[in-house]
Amino acid sequence: MFLNEILVILLIATVTKSAEIATNATVEDGEQKLAEYVRAILNHYKQKDPVGLPGVPIPDPMDIPPLNYPITLGSIKMTNIKLYGLKDFRIHHVSIDMAKMIADVAVTMENLIVRGNYTAKTLFSSSKGPYTVKLKEVYGQVVAKLRVESEGYLEAEEIKTKINPKQIDMKFEGLGGLASLLQNIMNSLGKFIFDSIEPYISKQSDAMTRVEINKRSREFPQRFPNSRSNHRQIVRKQGYDPYEIPDYNTTLGLFSVEMTHTWLTGLSSFHRVGNISFTLVNHTVEGNMEIGTQRLQGTANWEIGIVGGLLSRSGTVKFTVEYVKVGVIVRQSLDTRNKPELQDIQLELGNIQVRFDGAGTLDYIVEFSVNVLPNVLRYQIMDALESPVKRRIQEELNYINVEEMIMENVEKYDKGDMNFTLPKFG
């Protein structure tokens, strides 16, 4: 059913997008196939504590331009600067908001190390040697604003990168006579070095991310139709449209209410509504989306009476439900040996309007039924739909072999076949 769309988007947002970043030297030069990269990434996330991503084109070490820091009656010149540790990141979270077209990616790094040579000179003395700056507990964040260009492909419109260390430690060797002077300015010097290299790192990250998103997005389908007629046919064939709702009875004060032979028509008119969002936390992707139906039609037999059977009225009712909306949250571990799971489902019914047939004399019981039956129908439909829908979605998810489906599709891509395989349900 609509899970095809959820899972295709879900998988593209996780493993495939990781592979896109990794394929900096893939099919174009014929040296390595996309399938090999994806297989490496799948195996990577089977580890207990995956660090970095195999094949990601992050320079490590990264060369930093020379820096110059003014001091009293002199200056400190830093050269041969290299930054180590950028590839040793852990993904903290990923959030993709399809309505706002914003992707937010955050990573953490235990340490970033800056190494280089310095030359410090004043009017009275000088010293030189190697130095080390350690940036501890670094938090990095990339926020990308996306847009769909004229041909329907996804493009990165604006990218911003920020990194922030919790602590900065510095060590200079061979200070000699300048030791006391430099020790007094270590805190401000450490901040200066970080503030100087942070824009450079951000610029490099922004440029690389933009190129990779714009390049790789053209290699994967970006269009997901708002509704699928074949899914609607499946819904009808499986007996969900028209759908017979189980009989329902309840007691409201002195009155008993019974609804029987209730039929609902139009559930196959579902289409995607609202926002689609994805988050990645603790190596688990969570996809959140909503589907809704068009106006539904229904009929039912009703009977309302005073408790004890002293007086009763019965008849038939035709009703309309403005819409049915289902919010679905599906989770998939990046360890693709695990099955996708339905985390939550929320059911919402629009306004219900009723029209009575065979009501008989318009007495106080009929008047009561006019006021109460829409709410009774609401409870009846909610009870009838929520559990079966939840059970059916999880049953379909259990059929999916995520890793097998991913590998089948990337192997097709390597052969130039863009007819990707969708999940097959029972």
Automatic annotation (TrEMBL):
Tell me which UniProt keywords the record has, alphabetically.
Answer: Signal
Signal peptide range: 1-18
Give the source's domain of life in one word.
Eukaryota
* Pfam families assigned: Grp7_allergen (PF16984), JHBP (PF06585)
Q: Which PANTHER family match?
A: FI04421P (PTHR11008:SF13), PROTEIN TAKEOUT-LIKE PROTEIN (PTHR11008)
* The name this protein goes by in its record: Hemolymph juvenile hormone binding protein (JHBP)
